[in-house]
Amino acid sequence: MNLNQIVIAALVLLILWYLTFLASRLDRLHHRVETSWATLDSLLQKRAAIATEIVRESNIDPATAFLISNAAHSARDAGIAGRSEAESVLSEALKMIQEIAYDETLELPSELLIELSDITSKIRLAINLHLESVNSARNLRNKIFIRLFRLAGKAPLPVKYSFEDDAL
Amino acid sequence: MKKIKIGMVCPYGWDSPGGVQTHIRELTRHLLDEGHQVSVFAPVTNEESIQEDWLVNAGKPISIPVNGSVARVLFGPIASSRVKQWIAQGDFDLLHLHEPAIPSLSLLACSAATGPMVGTFHVSSPKQKAIYAIGPILEPIVEKLTARIAVSESARKTLKEHFDTDAVVIPNGIEGAQYANAQPTIHWRNPNTLGFIGRFEEPRKGLQVLLAALPIIARFIPDVRILIAGPGDGDEFIKGLDVGLRNRIVFLGFLTDQEKASLLKSIDIYVAPNTGGESFGIILTEALSAGTPVVASDIPAFKAVLENGDAGLLFKNEDSSDLAKVLIGLLRDSEKQKQLSNRGKLSSQKYDWQVVAEQILTVYEMAMAGNEKVGLISDNRFWNRR
Fold this sequence. Notes:
The complex is a heterodimer of chains A (168) and B (386). Chain A has 168 residues and is an all-alpha fold. Chain A is 80% helix and 0% strand. Chain A is built from 6 helices and no strands. The termini of chain A are far apart. In chain B, the strands form 4 sheets. Chain B has a 7-stranded parallel sheet with strand order 3-2-1-6-8-9-10, with helices on both faces. A 6-stranded parallel sheet of chain B has the order 13-12-11-14-15-16, with helices on both faces. Classes of the chains: A mainly alpha (168), B alpha/beta (386). At the A-B interface, helix 1 and helix 4 of A face helix 15 of B.
């Protein structure tokens, strides 16, 4: 074996190592996008459930009540395409609850209100983590080596939803 | 939340004083109080000084110069194998790494481990930024953190600039009760007394701004005094001052935490004339929780803590006459002082460890959502698999 062959073999090994390194980085980030979305998803479901519950247990006017429970229902039933919009609508509707929360003529279930504000701050955190993982995954997928060797395979490109920006 | 086992890594020498060490010590105590298990891994210079049984000694730190100051950190092959051993034996649910982007134990742990990891970024002053300069090499390692926490908006900005990643802002905690329940010291307790705590010889702490305002204040409030605490040579400092001012200034030297709390309780107004370079302003939150009205320069960090002037008064940075105006107004208005005191106590609650630790636990919970445990990367290599 002459020197040339050794150098080429070393180079090939180095490239192979680099490719597996990149692939495992990408795999880890994809995995994180999934888990962070799962967390966010379950929190959003919980939020919709709490919103419905609040409306049911208070004596707010029928118009507001309808708006909120309607928004909560469509957020729970929405498919992938309509999800973002539905969550935005629910966020807006829930702002109304916050506005009337200090109105003493209303009978509002205070425990549920606390739970709602609790879950809202958790959602903010979950959105932050989800956006962060989506951004890093997308940044990495833009790398020339990853595109050239199709290291992402058939994994779908991670996406963020527009409702995530409003909620921050 | 179910009780978890947390592995916490401190990058700096445990027995040298510092904000990160204090943060870790207090956070750990709170986590233990809530029933979680915590093991802290840190470099230690003098083993006999260690009192905590949850601390694991990683070895002696070495001092490396970082832009004029000295950081006591530990890294290298021996430290690396100790980190791995600690992780392997710990059986942790989660690792919490402090300052994982500087060459230290935290970085070693981050590169060796897999599973849920939370990183807290403390650095924010522009001076220390250079230590993050090795960014691109560290990126694949820092990227492994499941969640990132920055202790302030400016720490978050520093992180964004260097790694292009975002973080959740969770402020530094304080032991609120320690300040709220402190007893005033009688001979510090005089009418119209102002307080200043910090390294007064450093220009960026802004004592000169306060001293320049003093003659103006004295014209309207004849018995005004300033109590100054902090490391430094007070006698030397006072020589450079106008004779008329000297009897209004008392240097107290370096105070313990308890004395500091008592001082904050004794004075009428705490003044923070810092001219810049602050990332958070923990002393302001301490003064607020003692119920002492605060007057501070309008630099971004202080504006944030004082909620744009609602929780304490602001003056134009480096403007002594504006400071004098604000102080005279407040010293004459005891009603306003009372109001600020109540407002400040209320707003400082969000910095109490009770609240802050709860927020950190929520981050932990989310980081652990994947239901994994902490392990070593090397265990996943196929030749190591059992």
